[in-house]
């Protein structure tokens, strides 16, 4: 797991803190109730409901631990901290795929926040690394196993 700094906007930090609070307050309580209910059924050695509840508890605690770890490494970036004229963490960058003549907008994020389905790419991914520090009009080349991709930077917003 990447153990570096996690750059977030304040709004995303608030979302994650609320999620952690919900996991600790509501989800823990719900699982504790399920465990208590399963215990009330008697013999725990052959109680699938109890085993499932304990497994859910284990997964929840792992999720809480990961979220606490992430939050312990957060550095808030305000809009004023982000350059307007170059690709930087937490910027949106509109690029044109020169091979496929397709335009897409990516948000560059810390590795922990990457989600390709939401077009959030990690600054340490091949494309993220190639884009970092570049300006509008620059063309970047990204080597991937099958070929070399080329993107032209059309717009940068923060």
Secondary structure topology:
Layout: E1 6-8, H1 10-39, H2 48-72, E2 74-76, E3 92-97, E4 102-109, E5 120-122, H3 126-131, E6 139-144, E7 147-157
Parallel strand pairs: 1-2, 4-5
Antiparallel strand pairs: 3-4, 3-7, 6-7
In short:
This protein is of the alpha/beta class and 158 residues long.
By CATH, the architecture of the largest domain is named Roll
Q: Nearest-angstrom radius of gyration?
A: 22 Å
Count of structural domains: 2
- Residue stretches low in confidence (pLDDT < 50, at least 5 long) are none
- How many strands, which pairing sense, and closed or not: the largest β-sheet? 5 strands, mixed
Structural category is: alpha/beta
CATH T-level topology of the largest domain:
Chitinase A, domain 3
Helix content: 25-40%
Tally of helical runs: 3
The name of the CATH superfamily of the largest domain reads: Transcription elongation factor, GreA/GreB, C-terminal domain
Overall average pLDDT: 91
Strand order of the largest sheet: 5-4-3-7-6
Task: Tell me the fraction of residues in β-strands, as a range.
Answer: 25-35%
CATH class of the largest domain: Alpha Beta
Could you tell me the number of beta strands?
A: 7
**SSE arrangement, N to C:** EHHEEEEHEE
Judging from the principal axes of the Cα atoms, what is the shape?
elongated
Distance separating the two termini: 27 Å
């Amino acid at each position: 797991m990447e153990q570096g700094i996690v750059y977030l906007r304040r709004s995303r930090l608030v979302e994650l803190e609320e999620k952690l609070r919900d996991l600790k307050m509501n989800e823990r309580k719900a699982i504790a109730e399920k465990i208590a209910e399963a215990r009330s059924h008697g013999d725990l050695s052959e109680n699938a409901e109890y085993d499932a509840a304990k497994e859910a508890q284990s997964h929840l605690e792992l999720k809480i631990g990961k979220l606490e770890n992430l939050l312990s490494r957060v550095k808030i970036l305000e809009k004023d901290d982000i350059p307007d004229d170059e690709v930087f963490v937490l910027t949106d960058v509109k690029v044109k795929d020169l091979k496929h003549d397709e335009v897409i907008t990516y948000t560059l994020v810390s590795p922990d926040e990457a989600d390709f389905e939401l077009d959030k790419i990690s600054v340490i991914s091949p494309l993220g690394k190639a884009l970092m520090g570049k300006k509008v009009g620059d063309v970047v080349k990204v080597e991937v196993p099958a070929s070399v991709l080329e993107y032209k930077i059309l717009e940068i917003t923060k």
